[in-house]
Structures are given as C-alpha cells and as structure tokens.
Specification:
The protein is mainly α and about 260 residues long. It is about 75% helix and about 0% strand. The longest helix has about 40 residues. The termini are far apart. The N terminus and C terminus are likely disordered.
C-alpha cells in the first residue's frame, strides 16, 4: 500500500512538473514573438502601415475598374459580382502577406550614421536570432533592447565620431552579433556540454550580460552632462525662489483700519 501511495505521489509530481514546464514554455514562446524595443516596433508598425495602404489602393482600383466595366456593359451580373469579391479577397490576402518585413543582415547594422536607424536595425536583427537562443540569453536580449532604446534617444543628435557613439557602434554592430553568430555555429547537441568550465549556453548568457553592463555604463556616461545641468538649474532655482524669507513682505498701507 505504501508503494502504491509513493508511486501515485511521484506520478502526480511528474504531471505537475510537465504542466509547469509547458506553462513556462508557452510564456517563453509568447515573449519571443514580441518586439524587444520601441525602435523595432516602430519599424514593424511602419511596414504594416504600408501594407494597409497598398491593400486600400489596390482594392479601390479593383472596385473602380468593376464600376467602369459595369457602366460600359450595363451591369456585370452575378458572376461579375462574385469575381469582384474573389479578386478583393485574393488581393487582401496576397498584399497582407507580401512584401515581408525585411530583416537586416549583420553587415547592414553599421551602414548608417543615424542612431535611431542603428538601434532599430539591431533590434530587428536580434529579434530574428532570439528563437535560436537559450532562455536566459533570450531574456537578456530583451533587456538589451530596452537599453538600446534609451541609448538611441541619447545618441540622437550627437556627433557620430563622439567616443560614446563609436563605442556603442562597436558593441552593437560588431561585438554583439559576433558573439551570437559564434554561438549559432555550434551544433545543437554540443551547446549544453561543459567546456573550459562553462557550457556555450552559459557563456553566451554571461557575454550578453557583460554587453548589457557596458551599455548601462555608456548610458550613465552620456547622462552625466544632463544630470549636471539639471543639478545646476535646480540650485539656481533654490537660490532665487526657494527662500521664503527673501521674498518682499506684503505692504500694510492698504490694510489700515478706516476707524
């Protein structure tokens, strides 16, 4: 009887583990389908907007052509209406799927001096690589996407030859993709084998963590000037307006008792 109870508990425990793993995997898959940053999300929205515009133009053209043909032939009949509906559905289906969003190639990442474009291209490239990465590394990619958004705002308008801009370009356009490409060239069955004290999965997550730390350091470095300016302005306002005693006392001449 004790053995049966033990086996039942073990089966229930295994079932719970499978359930939890499936739930975690489902959440992970949903995360993989999301954009990792604002710039890549803007590029995707812009691409979808162009698709919707193309669909609207083509459908409008089809219906105008059908109207002109109906005027000439004094009606297009039932078959003509059905053909019009089919043509509309086909056009919407084809143009809704094509053209596909073009994923930047690794060589394209640094072919722009614009910080926003660099960030957007890098985020799109990372999103394309993320499904092939282990879960810890995929999570780190999401964190890097948030950091890239912040850096894109800070680098916008800064001279591309600024030391911080060059460092970000090297990290984002060279070091990061080289690390991901090196990992992806390792056969799947070898990625969990320990080598030199760590598995390739762990090495990738660690390397991405170091890149994230460096991006954070550059972000703080670029923010120092703005923080100093804000502190100076705050001290000035405190000096000029913060001391109530320095304000002139209200006049009492108009408050005399008329009696």
């Amino acid at each position: 009887m004790a053995d049966l109870t033990h086996d039942s508990d073990r089966v229930l425990g295994d079932a719970r583990q499978v359930r939890d793993d499936n739930r975690a995997g489902g959440r992970h898959r949903r995360e993989l389908g999301r954009s990792i940053g604002q710039e890549s999300r803007k590029l995707r929205h812009r691409h979808r907007g162009k698709k919707l515009r193309n669909i609207a133009l083509v459908v409008f053209a089809i219906w105008v052509a059908a109207g002109v043909l109906g005027t000439i032939l004094e009606g297009i009949g039932f078959m003509g209406v059905m053909a019009l509906i089919v043509a509309t559905v086909v056009a919407m289906g084809v143009l809704g799927k094509f053209p596909r969003m073009k994923v930047p190639q690794r060589a394209d990442l640094t072919k722009t001096a614009d910080a926003r474009q660099l960030v957007g291209r890098t985020e799109l490239w990372l999103e394309a690589q993320r499904p092939a990465l282990p879960a810890p590394a995929a999570d780190m990619v999401g964190k890097i996407g948030v950091q890239l958004d912040a850096l894109g705002l800070q680098l916008d308008g800064i001279d591309p030859n600024h030391p911080a801009a060059r460092e970000v370009r090297t990290l984002v356009g060279e070091t990061l993709p080289e690390m991901v490409d090196s990992y992806r060239r390792i056969p799947q069955q070898l990625r969990a084998e320990e080598r030199a004290g760590a598995t390739p999965d762990a090495q990738l997550a660690s390397g991405l963590g170091k890149i994230s730390d460096e991006l954070g350091r550059v972000t703080r470095q670029l923010a120092e000037g703005s923080l100093d300016d804000l502190a100076v302005k705050t001290r000035y306002l405190d000096y000029k307006y913060g001391d109530d005693a320095a304000l002139p006392a209200p006049s009492t001449s108009s408050a005399k008792d008329p009696a």
